[in-house]
Amino acid sequence: MSVVLTAVEGGFDLTIAGTLVMRHRPEAPALFVGAGRADVDMYRGNYFLSDRLDARVPLTRCTVAGDVATLSADGAPLLRLRIEGGAVAIEALDPSLNRLWLRCVAEAGERLWGGGEQLSYVDMAGRRFPMWTSEPGVGRDKSTYLTFQCDRDHRSGGDYWNTNYPQPTYLSSRRYALHVETTAYTCFDFRDPAFHEIEAWAIPARIELFAAPRFADLVGHLSTRFGRQPKLPAWAIEGAILGLKQGEESFARMEAIIAAGAIVTGLWCEDWIGLRITSFGKRLFWDWKANESRYPALKAKIAALNDRGIRFLGYVNPYLAIDGTLYQEAVAAGYLALRLDADAPYIVDFGEFDCGIVDFTNPAAADWFAERVIGGEMLDYGLSGWMADFGEYLPTDVRLHDGTDGMLAHNAWPTIWAEVNARAVASRGKTGDALFFMRAGFTGVGRYCPLLWAGDQSVDFSRHDGIGTVIRAALSSGLVGNAYHHSDLGGYTSLYGNVRTPELLMRWSELCALTPVMRSHEGNRPDDNLQLDDDPAVLAHFAAMTRLHAALAPYVTSLCDEAAATGMPLQRPLFLDWQDDADCWGVETQYGYGRDLVVAPVIEAGATRWSAYLPAGAAWIHLWSGERYEGGTTADVAAPIGEPPVFWREASDHAALFRSIPAKVNA
Amino acid sequence: MSVVLTAVEGGFDLTIAGTLVMRHRPEAPALFVGAGRADVDMYRGNYFLSDRLDARVPLTRCTVAGDVATLSADGAPLLRLRIEGGAVAIEALDPSLNRLWLRCVAEAGERLWGGGEQLSYVDMAGRRFPMWTSEPGVGRDKSTYLTFQCDRDHRSGGDYWNTNYPQPTYLSSRRYALHVETTAYTCFDFRDPAFHEIEAWAIPARIELFAAPRFADLVGHLSTRFGRQPKLPAWAIEGAILGLKQGEESFARMEAIIAAGAIVTGLWCEDWIGLRITSFGKRLFWDWKANESRYPALKAKIAALNDRGIRFLGYVNPYLAIDGTLYQEAVAAGYLALRLDADAPYIVDFGEFDCGIVDFTNPAAADWFAERVIGGEMLDYGLSGWMADFGEYLPTDVRLHDGTDGMLAHNAWPTIWAEVNARAVASRGKTGDALFFMRAGFTGVGRYCPLLWAGDQSVDFSRHDGIGTVIRAALSSGLVGNAYHHSDLGGYTSLYGNVRTPELLMRWSELCALTPVMRSHEGNRPDDNLQLDDDPAVLAHFAAMTRLHAALAPYVTSLCDEAAATGMPLQRPLFLDWQDDADCWGVETQYGYGRDLVVAPVIEAGATRWSAYLPAGAAWIHLWSGERYEGGTTADVAAPIGEPPVFWREASDHAALFRSIPAKVNA
Q1: Which of A277, A433, B231, B629 is most solvent-facing, going by the fewest CB within 10 Å?
Q2: Which chain B residues are within 8 Å of A55, Cβ to Cβ?
Q3: ipTM
Q4: Among all residues of chain A, which has the CA nearest to that of B154?
Q5: Which candidate in A13, A392, A488, A581 is catalytic?
Q6: Which CATH code fits A571-665?
Q7: For B197-229, what is each residue's pLDDT tens digit?
């Protein structure tokens, strides 16, 4: 793709494929440099950042020579831009500079998508999005009482932009994409009608640009750039993964769920490492090895499950509890991140227990964790997958082996964590078979992480933290190169009396059946919340939805092939396949599940009917009624529990499969 | 006072009376200039401001010639400072500059007082204080449910720094004061241990400096600079002003309160202009003339009251309801502020009724309002005083007669509004007799406004919006030159079921008895809230407190004399009189009432005892028990309802008066 720098009127124009991206003029500069000091206030993964700004200097003077622009204010040159392939390499000419602002041309009606995994808005136009991996917040809406209580008591309410997985990359409806190559804090500000302003708390190495007339190709370029996942293993597609954490009792519960007609291909017991009882409730014991007092003879049981086509999954994160055995090994070997102010491990308080941080910038420590912990204790033990939790909490005042400043390491950590997991999987030849899933992410995470999960939704239908947010999360993360996405079936966070209703659990079963991986979760407070096997009607509905999921497997497998070939995400905004229908561009609560299905999950309580926009250029068949709809219309359909709104493309090669599904589900 | 500019190492030092205030160096500049655009979002007097910053340039180059410093970045000179007497005149040399940042030297342990009328903190050290007149907020504490509800429903919760009366002036414990002479938005940021940063959204005309070894003298200097009030009239000191707003029924209620033993010298009926019924409740009719259907024969009644030594007070604000008669007069004469986008009056929505804004930058309009409205309809009618409400709401997108930009006129408006009132009073020769009181303020308001009131507290004991805030308001506003302060007895704002308890009403009676003016208020929802005459015990207690207030009148009169002579506020931080006792410096919930009384009002619910710090250097007598305490100690005393903690200086000239008080109160 051709990025072109053209000297104009004392400044320059920067275009990609003929599209004007930056317009720099003496009286309206697009570039500013400066210096500031970050104020970082962190409480249990919730970050409150502010900048003590010293300088912000508009670079009003500019000389262009060939592919190089040299910029200054009144005096010495301060910044150099150099076109290198599809990117603009950036070099600060004054070492004191640690801030950059960049303005890109804005157009009326322009849509701006991406930003990593965004839970509240797929189209970011008109809003401001800080890019800093963190807890996503509980409630995420300052007008809700739940958010207020979380803010008041735990500083954890969050806001629309908080995410486990930010990424300083956007796609513009002007048919280009822009990526800021830095792990520093950045902020995308799309509020001004005249320009988009990107702020970076470091001088980024590069601004990378991508262009294509078709959005699908643009996504393909980003997938190529940021990493393309291996295909999902068949076992993860062909049945549900049950999340149970009741020690060996989990096995009996699984059998009962199977007996109720559910198709199960995985059992996920995050408590495989044992429990720790705190005043908050039951927590996991963060010492990454099987706890055979909680799960007697687990290794043999896993082998027996495997023989039945059911995989066993566990849990791990990058911390080590100080009262565990691995912590002692890591301390002895010098594998932990240190304090800035002492030659002692940096200890993080997780609420009545303390942990060390494995310093993955130390190659020996990363090797140890991949080989000894994940390889030796997990894969060799028989695990076929795990939740690779966290990654967002790296403190900024930490001393790392390779000397990276914490402000730059923080955002990089999720990708580093993913790489350690991927390396362990590869070491056992299990890539594409063993499956780990992460909520944290940053640029490049898709190169290592085979599956995202949408993080910790509240167990409700709320706009900014409920069931609907997982759709937006899939769409936004898919646009920047993550083909596979799923969520905790039933949601996770139950606080202040907010508990699952049967309706919520069933609607979430429907939604998860229509994502590549269908995995249940008992939530943070299992005993207070309805579980799938607590209520026969809920269980029967879940079983039916696992049959829906399984019935789709041949089609989903073809989507995995497509993803591997082109980078197209499985769940995708309608406009990726139906770009010429502008009415698709603003649709954020439906998705194309591949090109041949339109899915419009019910994400409101009390609904009995539901509306879905169907793209122009095709005819669509309602999965349950067989009713035919012309594209370019909004279908209003019955949507009782058990019949999530799904439409298939009449001309699909998979029409016979789709037509057969209702009978399989209702078997 | 000698401000000295000394060239040092490529920069300068700026001192006053030998105290280093600014230290400007190439590598650590104290001055920055820039440009930005304000984003202003306003909802019913609650403002949400943010800056779209284009440039912030450290002025690293400096040349000093005599009393002039010329500063630049790399290129042309950008800013000139010139010492002029006790001030630093500032001149921008580039007309595009509209932002200034100024850093002053900070010292460990430094205290920073003032900022106008601050309701949450008298000592501003460690926090950030925007200076923008606005609604003060309801709740003012993001951790309270009341604040949350107000934010959610009305955007009105506010925060610790919101105030009707900001003023960009601080006093430092380093024995100097600094004032920023501008009406633009400014912000005092006292969070950095190394410097205080002052931000201004315009280039201020001057930075004014004041110094004195004694804080009392520093306050005197500020009082001289910002205006010194006339003495309070005797009638305002010698009894209570009853706030009643029940139409002519108010007179009978007043008689009953007097009959219960209260000493009353004023009747304040804010509904003298009539009512308007809205869904919010009963509002006043904003057409400034007596409503003789609500108050039949009012003029004669006022005269009869005057004969008994009881003055009558009303209400006015700078708006005109569009369905009133004065609005039509103002429209016809062209006296209203206009819209930017049309030749039409700027209409403000006050909740089911609309108003025009009298444009006081038009001398004819200001004259009309002073002469025709306040003079003709109020003073000539017999009013001896009024609440001069509002002043904080001037929209920033308004077109004014003199062309002032709304961003600069907004903060100026309270002082302009005060001037109109003062001019009206002077026109009738009533200065020092007619008494109006304001909640809004800004630099210079004290030159015109004879009495502040603390605004609209919630009817509770809450830390940031309850009874205790009126003490901090008195202390902070007193430090910048406002000698007289009082509050709504009982508080004002009752929302979301928050209503007055008998205890609150009685503790507030105690507090008001010990301020120069004791004025009751029925609150925003009189019918939902306990009133003084609803409960015999509350009424008897109020009556006793009016006797306390009246008994103090000779002493308070002497304090008024002192204020007129020196600018010393009547309610004052203990350190003004007891500077050598450093333990006084942090006391914010007690005050010296003059030099001879220490008042420590009970501002918590449920208290039966109370502690008060007594300054070293004197001995103190507890008013009620006669118990003697050495200064430099904390006295813990019984504080039942009816005995607000007060201590008098044993050696006071007024000892006999103080000793006589308990008997008068309990008569």
Answers
A1: A277
A2: 32, 56-58
A3: 0.91
A4: A143
A5: A392
A6: 2.60.40.1180
A7: 999 999 999 999 999 999 999 999 999 999 899
